Amino acid sequence: MNTQRVAFQGEKGAYSELATSQYFLNAEILPMKTFEEVFENIETGKVDFAIIPIENSIEGSINETYDLLLQTNMLVSGEIYLRIRHCLIANKHTNSIIDSVYSHPQALAQCRSYLKKKRLEPIPTYDTAGAVKMIKERNITNAAAIASRRAAEIYDMEILDEGIEDKNNNFTRFLVLSKTKTKPTHNDRTSIIFSINHLPGALYSILEEFAYRKINLTKIESRPTKEAPWEYNFYVDFEGHLSEENTKYALQSVKKKCAFFKILGSYKKAEFM
Asked: What 8-state DSSP symbol labels residue 34?
C-alpha cells in the first residue's frame, strides 16, 4: 500500500504540521512555502491530501484560505481542532537584549498583549516555524520568534517563555482537502459557498430553508466577490451530510435562490483535543 502524501503550508514545526500529524498517523508530510502551492499540489495530484488553516478562535478567519476554496475545485473531507500554545524562542546562549519578535501575522496577533507588555516589536513573516529557522540560520541575537515547542526542538533553539498567547482557549481549525467524497458518519458537517442577488430578504430566504428543516448552521462568513464592489460570497457550515435526505432537499431549494452556488463537501466533525 502506497504511503499517503500530505501537503501543508510552512516549515517543519509549524502548527499546520502538528495538525497534519494529529490527523494522519503514517503519512509522508510535505512542507510548502505558500497556500497557493499547497492548493496547486493537491489539485494536480502531486499529493493525496492537504491541510489548511481556516479560522482561529481568537483572531477569526484566514481570508486567503477562503478565497482559494472558491477558486479551486477541491473537496473538504475532514477537519481538525488544534490547541495553539505559543513559545517565545531565541538562539541559545545569547546575551543580547531581545527587542523584536518574528512570526506569522496570526501568531503575532494572538500574542498582542504579551508583546505590548514586554515592549517587543512584532515583525510579520510567512510562517511561525519559518521565523525560528530564519533566526537560527542568520544567527540573529537581538530578536526572538513565536512558534511551537516542536519548532524550538527541531532547530535546537531556546524557549524563553511558553504559553504567551493572550487567551488560553486558543484553537485553530484546519480543513483536510482531497478529491474524495466522504461517507456519512452521523456526526458530520457540510460546507457550501453561495452568492445572492440584491433583493430585499434574499439572505433571509436562504437561511429560512435551513431553519424550516431544523438544520443547525455552525458558521456563516462573507467575503467580497472581487468582481463588483459591495457584492459578497457567503461561506456556510451546517450540521448534516450531503447524502441525507433532509440536507439534499435543503440544498436543492437553496440553489434555486442563489446567483452562485458551490458545495465544498461533507466531513466528520472534529473533536476538541
From this structure: S
Considering the domain architecture, whether residues 174 and 77 belong to the same structural domain is answered as yes
* 273 located within any domain: no
Contacts (Cβ under 8 Å, ≥6 apart) of 201: none
- How long is the chain? 273
Q: Does 273 score more than 70 pLDDT?
A: no
Q: Is 125 a catalytic residue?
A: no
Residue 14's CATH number = 3.40.190.10
174/68 same-domain check? yes
For residue 238 the three cell numbers come to: 451546517
Handedness of CA 87, 135, 18, 71 (dihedral sign): positive
Q: Which of 230, 267, 236 is nearest to 254 (CA)?
A: 236
- Model-level pTM greater than 0.70? yes
Pick from 220, 126, 121, 114: nearest CA to 168: 114
Active-site hit among 20, 125, 172, 182: 172
DSSP structure string for 113-158: HHHHHHT-EEEE-S-HHHHHHHHHHHT--SEEEEE-HHHHHHTT-E
Is 174 a residue of the active site?
A: yes
Contact indicator for 173, 54 with CB cutoff of 8 Å:
yes
Beta bridge partner(s), residue 142: none
Q: At which residue does the C-alpha cell 461533507 appear?
A: 266
Q: Is 16 exposed, middle or buried (0-12, 13-18, 19+ CB in 10 A)?
A: buried
pLDDT at 68: 95
Q: Does residue 147 sit within a domain?
A: yes
Instruction: Quote the number of domains for the chain.
Output: 3
Could you list the residue range(s) of the whole structural domain that residue 198 is in? 188-268
Say yes or no to pLDDT of 146 above 70.
yes
Q: Each residue of 101-125: pLDDT tens digit?
A: 999 999 999 999 999 999 999 999 9
